[in-house]
Fold this sequence. Notes:
With 277 residues, this protein is an alpha/beta fold. The chain is built from nine helices and ten strands. The chain has helices at residues 15-18, 35-46, 48-53, 66-75, 89-94, 135-164, 172-184, 206-222, 249-266, and strands spanning 24-28, 57-62, 82-84, 97-102, 105-110, 113-117, 123-127, 225-233, 236-243, 272-276. A five-stranded mixed β-sheet has the order 3-2-1-6-7. A three-stranded mixed β-sheet has the order 8-9-10. Helix 4 links the parallel strand 2 (57-62) and strand 3.
Amino acid sequence: MLQPGARIPDLPPLAEHAASGKPLVLYFFPKAGTPACIMEACSFRDNLALLRGHGAEVVGVSPDSATVLSGFASKYSLDFPLLSDAEGTLAEAFGVATQQLWAGKTFQSVSRTTFLFEAGGGLRQVWENVDPRDHVQHVAAAAAGMAAESSAQDLQARLEEARRIVSPFANAREAEARLDALRRSEGHEVAEHGAPLRAEAGGVDPAEVQGVLDTLRPYMRADGGDVELVGIDAGIVKVRLQGACGTCPSSTVTLRLGIEAQLKQRVPGVQGVEAVF
């Protein structure tokens, strides 16, 4: 019998279900219309919304013909697929093929077995000789646990991705070091794109503001944007955001707030930042 960790067999009757990208509950039952098989099928039917809520789809398999299964599904309103395995291909691949004696005759059948596959096609859990009275509840609990693990893994992956994103304002130590170097350099009082800026009386030093902007500019240019110091008025630093940084209002607000936080932290007297166009 197929064991946890194995891959779902690549067989035509299962191809579209195995490739759905969703967890799969695949259950084998011996014969449509018998009391135990009716109970099991109806239990899956009644709990289908719960299983799908955990991301799982349900597929039933039996040795019955497609015609018999179609009538069975219609009679009991089974809104999940039932696959005919009259040749026993799937039963052999999964290791659930059996022989049963009925009315003095031996015939091929399957053991009542359920397989739970992960979205990637790996077998997670197997239930053999199940009791149809409470079996589906066990399957639903396992599907819920698998969904919780998947959510935690997805969150961890998103966090790792977020940690790899370099914000224009992330490297504070490097920014501080570059600012100190610029403060010590000569002629730094001249703005990059204009005439010399002079400090307000008892107010903000334009040279220090320009120094902070210069440390941020390489990060902004890496995203296709730029920043230019336009002027300072009563502690309000006016900047022009260019390129990609200024094309989206939400992006402009985010960048302005980031610049404002850096300037307030590093330059005495800064009260805020205004973006001009």
